Amino acid sequence: MTQSGSVNSTLKAQRSKLGFTQSSILNPQSFLPDSPIARAELRYQRHAAGKLRRWQRIFLRLGYGFLVTLSAILYFGQLAGSLLRRDSNPIFAALAPYVVILMVVTLATHVWLLLRTMMTACNSIAHEKMSGTWDVLILTGIDARQIVFGKWWATMRFTAREFWLLLPLRVAMSVYIGHQISYVSYSYMMFSRNHLIPVPPNLINLVLIVPLLALFTFAGAGLAAAVGVLASAAFRRATAAVGAALGVYITLLIVGVGAVSLLVAGLDAQFPFREPERYERYLVTRQTLDTIRYSWIENGTLLNASLVTFGWTPAGDRDAVAAIDLRSLSDNHQRTLVSLAIGLVICLGLYPLVIRAVLKAAERAAALRE
User: Fold this and answer.
1) Of 276 and 12, more confident
2) What domain count does the chain have?
3) Least confident stretch, 113-117, 198-202, 253-257
4) Which of the pair, 369 or 284, is modelled with greater confidence?
5) Per-residue pLDDT tens digits for 57-99
6) Which of 2, 154, 205, 229 has the fewest CB atoms within 10 Å distance of its CB?
7) In a domain, 156, yes or no
8) Contact present, 206 and 324 (Cβ < 8 Å)
């Protein structure tokens, strides 16, 4: 009787530590993002992260302030050019040396944040096993689904601030890449036409890339966190989980690109030379598959850059430029926008499906250890 009372008191203490009661376990809210598991894990992650030294915080704030200022000049300069129907190239040309720094830092930071998210998730269940609290957590009656989803959501909340801070840099980088793509195409077009003037990107597209890049950024973070939780559920030690998570993440990228590449190869094998109607469908399908393939690897940067590329028109049509809209675009440009839109929907739809599948695998791995 004494031993049974001791076990019961231990379970009650663990429930109290996590914020659980008998009613909260049976409450539907325990399945929602703000569950006791998520809150407890978030507190642990914040405590384990520690704080930077004062000089490190000052250095990072100064560097980030410089990059955000540069990003704002690039984005709002392009926005002003779109509103006024003027070429923003002088701004981009003047800032080109600094934009190289912006792009390198943005790419490196994005990769580092994905790795950090993955490593944080890899420790989410592993630290319970190493500290001996995993068995007690299971005995409280919490099922694998609640544990896995709570750990995943806590990781997302823990890293969300850094990804929000990265977003302005990604937006500016996409705008700059779109500008460079435009002038590369201009150099080719000059072989067949002279005296072309730029048609600035559509204002709606410039505004649209901000939420689109936010969706891509957090979708990529969600996938990295899900893979980390899966590895953490499958391995006892965090170091082994990190290696496994990297392997799974890279495999998902390779499999995704490989599957789309096979579709592209099959499509190219049936290239319709002499049927104009089929040829148009072929071009849309081909560009859509290319959009999915590249976006799966680089997380939507090139897709959004393509949305804000310039058009080009003969110099005598400046009046037409002032009133240009989607209906006046060339057939090739319209086809490209349609392909980008279809690829965007498919690619963003793939992320939640893959994340759900990975979390389901993590649930099964966690259930095996109950």
Assistant:
1) 276
2) 1
3) 198-202
4) 284
5) 999 999 999 999 999 999 999 898 888 877 788 888 899 899 9
6) 2
7) yes
8) no
> Are 125 and 363 a contacting pair, CB within 8 Å?
no
Q: Are 298 and 334 in contact (CB under 8 A)?
A: no
Alpha-carbon distance of 216 to 59, in angstroms, equals 28
Q: Structural domain of residue 127, as residue ranges?
A: 31-42+52-368
d(CA 117, CA 197): 45
Give domain status of residue 17, yes or no: no
Query: Is-contact 268 243, C-beta < 8 A?
Result: no
Give the separation between CA 25 and CA 249, rounded to whole angstroms: 32
pLDDT digits (tens, 9 = 90+) for 240-281: 899 999 999 999 999 999 999 999 888 888 775 656 667 778
Q: How far apart are CA 272 and CA 87, in angstroms?
A: 38
